[in-house]
Amino acid sequence: MEIVSGPTASSPAYRQAGHEKVSGILRRATVICVYLAAFIAPLFYLPFTQDALFGKQILVIVLIALALLFWLARVLLKKEGAYLYNILLLAFGLLFVILLLASIFSVHPRLSFFSPDPTGERFLSLTAFMVLTVLIASEFSKKEVGRLATALLGSGVILALLILFAVFPVVSLPPVLLINPVGTLQNSAAVLGAFF
């Protein structure tokens, strides 16, 4: 009688299958972090911060950092990485070096790297968005980019309704929902203009 066995835990095929499974999980985690950044960031609000946008900056930077860590773990696991040969990457690299030097040699280096800023023009914020762009370009399919745009626009619609009800309380909502997650009306106009 002949005994046929499947791949054992020490066989290369078994390890390869395990790597593929973990790689798929890490890729999904990267994509989910980016989706969460797109959907939650416009709606995120910390009532105890002086600037409503600072909490959003922190949330987006943390989610992008997590997405980058998942992506790096996947690259190390597979021992291969893919990136696009694009002039945009060269421009981002040059911009990163310029921003780093400008932040180091600025009058207030600590504030230049990361601090509350209504326009999000600090070194860490701009670097996070460059990383986000590279992650989306290298990891997302056209279908996933469409889902990302849908998540962002869905969040924009909810944000517009929250701002509308906060400015014109035509509907009786609980006080916790009568907020403007963007802060001032000028910020609201700028954010909603960007969504439109």
Describe the structure.
- The protein has 196 residues and is an all-alpha fold.
- Helices cover 68% and strands 0% of the residues.
- It is built from seven helices and no strands.
- It has helices at residues 12-40, 52-78, 87-104, 109-113, 123-139, 142-167, 185-195.
- The protein is globular and about 65 Å long.
- 18% of the residues are buried.
- The mean pLDDT is 79.
Structure described in brief:
With 196 residues, this protein is an all-alpha fold. The protein has helices at residues 12-40, 52-78, 87-104, 109-113, 123-139, 142-167, 185-195.
Order of helices and strands: HHHHHHH
Quaternary structure classification: single chain
Instruction: Give a count of the beta strands, DSSP E runs of length 2 or more.
Output: 0
Overall, the morphology is globular
Q: How many helices does DSSP assign?
A: 7
Poorly predicted regions are none
Structural class: mainly alpha
Mean pLDDT: 79
Main β-sheet description:
none
Give the distance, in angstroms, between the N- and C-terminal Cα atoms.
71 Å
Helix content: 55-70%
In percent terms, what proportion of residues is strand?
A: under 5%
Radius of gyration based on Cα positions: 22 Å
Question: What distinguishing features does this structure have?
Answer:
about 200 residues; globular; mainly alpha; about 70% helix; single chain
Helix and strand arrangement:
Elements: H1 12-40, H2 52-78, H3 87-104, H4 109-113, H5 123-139, H6 142-167, H7 185-195
